[in-house]
């Protein structure tokens, strides 16, 4: 039994390396060039990321892997344009993110980036349809179109029976499906999912991964997941590994 | 959608919202009750000033107003009958009568005091005589020209009773001392001790006889609406210039210095009280709304990651503050109506400075007071929401996301 597990782990580790070395080429949706991120901690400065270079092509289904504190979330935040690197550059659609002001970044996020969080981060006072409609308020959509798109997104994630349910009336898996529908509804270029299965049991986590994979294949949406869960890393097509803020 | 979210967020924490609404409604009611109380006192004083002292308008010569005549007789109005006839032709004029006022000595065989004599045209100023509030005895009548009404405190000072006689000594316009004996017809009160202690009232014709003149020093004009005072003053001033260019018109407000001072005092007090009440409301809501905003830091991070700007986040909380203020003001309307009705029913007695007796506290309600209170409380609620929202919107998105929703 122990021998079998070790073998599986070895194969997995090998496969990561193989996948990691097959870097995609061509025009990239997202590029991180020699990116570092440092935080002040009292009188000291802590380095969360150190000289990371990563290219992500349109349609990829990849993961940032590494133990807790390795810098996965920090890199995800930088790629999602909700944080700025201390040095280095992030490019979104070949445009440097650093040159954009706050308003332009808000527009970019509103149109091109979807987020999925470990703790779902749903608006508790809104029901499922309204939660999914919420990001569409920022886009040029009529109320009717918003409603139609939200209901369609919920159907795609298998939530057609829960349109009127509020988040506290849903299970963990259902909430994450709802969060995926919310991220998907505006048809973004990329969805960034931070530990999307961490709060779910193994079976539900598997279903959520299957759903994201399905959306990646069928809708062509780029997915970048952060996780240290082997079940997740098994499923993605590319793994970018981090250790103490550095690529390994 | 934003409004729907705001409305639902308000009722997310019912106890906290109830506390905030209670504070707003309390502040709203405090403003309404104080303004209503002060407003009713001002209305009462305005009524006393107009009905017992000044009328709405007073017409006299420039020399009279400026006390510049060498001989007081020169300051009298020459053709008052013609002017009164003109004034009475206006449909808004309820009365227009001549008046003489004079200082003199009033007394009995035992005692005498100086006092101010006010003369009324008994037929023409019945309404004003009625407004004197007869405390005992009878009002003046045309049938009894040699009668006087005494301020209740003046009558007490003299120890004179109704039906007894008093002697009045005064200078005529030629500087000769003249005297007249009058029966005390009754005693009046104006509500102001200063007037009740020093004033007596007698018919105009009797006063003219005492002062040896057929003229009047001023003409008192009553109107059917106080709001028309300024407009009619201008209209009358234009026309009266044709009759007598020396005539000048003053309004009751120009003449009622005590009223003006009291009004200014109440207005300053009102502003001071409003600032205190609103500060308390603001601090109270700031605390509860601030707590709500802090608890929603994770939500702020989430919606900002979706693409909402700082301004949109602030706008969301400001909308919630405005809704909270609106709900509080709505509750405040009912609370202030209930409280004012209770105060009015209880008829709580109050003795004001300078008043001769207690009067019941009355709280008058007006649309303007409600509008003012609503504006102030809603603005406070909006500011109370905007301050923590502004602070929260400045938190970096990644920091905000570390808070759970």
Condensed summary:
With 248 residues, chain A is of the alpha/beta class. Chain A has helices spanning 2-21, 72-79, 102-112, 128-133, 143-156, 172-184, 202-219, 230-235; strands spanning 30-41, 44-56, 61-65, 87-92, 95-96, 113-116, 190-194, 222-227, 238-243, 246-247.
Overall geometry of chain B comes to elongated
How do the strands line up in the largest sheet of chain B?
3-4-9-6-8-7
First and last CA, distance of chain A: 29 Å
Order of helices and strands of chain B: HHEHHEEEHEEHEEHEHEHEHHHHEEHH
Order of helices and strands of chain A: HEEEHEEHEHHHEHEHEE
From the N-terminal CA to the C-terminal CA of chain B, the straight-line distance is 20 Å
The general outline of chain A is globular
Q: Please give the CATH class of the domain at 59-83 and 103-247 in chain A.
A: Alpha Beta
**With helices defined by DSSP (H or I, 4 residues minimum), what is the helix count of chain B?**
15
CATH homologous superfamily label of the domain at 59-83 and 103-247 in chain A: P-loop containing nucleotide triphosphate hydrolases
User: Which range best describes the helical content of chain A: under 10%, 10-25%, 25-40%, 40-55%, 55-70% or over 70%?
Assistant: 25-40%
What is the mean pLDDT of chain A? 86
Q: What are the low-pLDDT stretches of chain A, counting only 5+ consecutive residues below 50?
A: 1-25
Number of domains of chain B: 2
Quaternary form: heterodimer
**Rg from alpha-carbon coordinates of chain A:** 18 Å
Description:
The complex is a heterodimer of chains A (248) and B (405). With 248 residues, chain A is of the alpha/beta class. Chain A has a domain at 59-83 and 103-247: P-loop containing nucleotide triphosphate hydrolases (Rossmann fold, 3-Layer(aba) Sandwich), CATH 3.40.50. Chain A has helices at residues 2-21, 72-79, 102-112, 128-133, 143-156, 172-184, 202-219, 230-235; strands spanning 30-41, 44-56, 61-65, 87-92, 95-96, 113-116, 190-194, 222-227, 238-243, 246-247. In chain A, the strands form two sheets. Chain A has a six-stranded mixed sheet with strand order 6-7-8-3-9-10, with helices on both faces. In chain A, strands 2-1-4-5 form a four-stranded antiparallel sheet, with helices on one face. In chain A, strand 1 (30-41) and strand 2 form a beta hairpin. Chain A starts with a helix and ends with a strand. The model of chain A is unreliable at 1-25 (pLDDT under 50). With 405 residues, chain B is of the alpha+beta class. Chain B folds into two domains: 2-48 and 259-400, no CATH class; 101-118 and 127-210, no CATH class. Chain B has 15 helices and 13 strands. Chain B has helices spanning 2-10, 14-54, 62-66, 80-88, 126-130, 152-158, 193-198, 204-210, 229-243, 252-255, 257-295, 297-306, 310-346, 367-393, 397-400; strands spanning 57-61, 93-99, 101-107, 112-120, 134-137, 147-151, 165-171, 177-188, 199-203, 218-223, 247-251, 349-350, 359-360. Chain B has a six-stranded mixed beta barrel with strand order 3-4-9-6-8-7. A four-stranded antiparallel sheet of chain B has the order 2-10-1-11, sandwiched between helices. A two-stranded antiparallel sheet of chain B has the order 12-13. In chain B, strand 3 (101-107) and strand 4 (112-120) form a beta hairpin. Chain B is elongated. The mean pLDDT of chain B is 89.
